[in-house]
Write a structure and sequence with these properties.
By secondary structure, the chain is mainly alpha-helical. The protein has one domain. The chain contains four helices and no strands.
Amino acid sequence: MSPSTDTLRMALLNRFLKGEARIPQMPEAAVRIRKLLDDPRTSLEQLTRVITGDPPLAAYLMQFSNTLCCAGSAAVVRCVNC
């Protein structure tokens, strides 16, 4: 995995473990994401498929990714930009 993939994976995992990330509407998405984050072979494409399958979750994560603590050089406007 690339360094940016590892960074995103660890940021998401830390937020889930701290209870800071709220998974709206579809608890099965949370279970699938946790399983994917536990597997070091998980690709961003796999995470993207699960996240985009839950529009409220995708919107929340895109909003989070644009905060000062996570923002890169450009705003995230689609899940595939992460």
